[in-house]
Amino acid sequence: MEVRSIIMHLRRLLNTRQGSVMIADDYGIPDFTAMAGDNYSEAVENMEQSIKRTIVKYEKRLRDVRIIIDKDQKDVFSIRFKLEAFMVGEEKIPVIFDTVFRSDGKFNINSD
């Protein structure tokens, strides 16, 4: 199933730190564990933009990617967000991935 393949690739992509693979210097995401704590909303916005930019560039099976941060979180040690997109060729069927950035710097991705 293609959705499973996309999830597997997103897990690899989001759990890879930029500069750590030879395929491309910008493959993966920056190290978000070093985010400054004094301006949380700006750091989360930068994280949101970086994740979207990386997915748009390296996961070509998704289009119209949106990252929606859950601002009503109970767990202070993680950041939850929804990754919404459409699969290329599937004009009317959105895919939604519940995603958690954990305090250990790892992403967990689940599909609805």
Tell me what the structure shows:
The longest helix is centred in the middle third of the chain and has 19 residues, at 40-58. The model has no long low-confidence stretch (mean pLDDT 83). The chain has helices at residues 2-14, 40-58; strands at 62-69, 78-87, 94-102, 107-111. It is globular and about 40 Å long. Strand 3 (94-102) and strand 4 (107-111) form a beta hairpin. It has a four-stranded antiparallel β-sheet, with helices on one face. It is an alpha+beta fold and 112 residues long. The protein starts with a helix and ends with a strand. Helices cover 29% and strands 29% of the residues.
Structural class: alpha+beta
Helix/strand order, N-terminal first: HHEEEE
Mean pLDDT across the residues is 83
Sketch the major β-sheet.
4 strands, antiparallel
Estimated share of beta-strand residues: 25-35%
Widest β-sheet, arrangement of strands: 1-2-3-4
In helices, the fraction of residues equals 25-40%
**pLDDT < 50 stretches:** none
What's the Cα radius of gyration?
Answer: 14 Å
Shape annotation:
globular
**DSSP summary, beta strand count:** 4
The N- to C-terminal Cα distance equals: 15 Å
List descriptors.
112 residues; 4-stranded antiparallel beta sheet
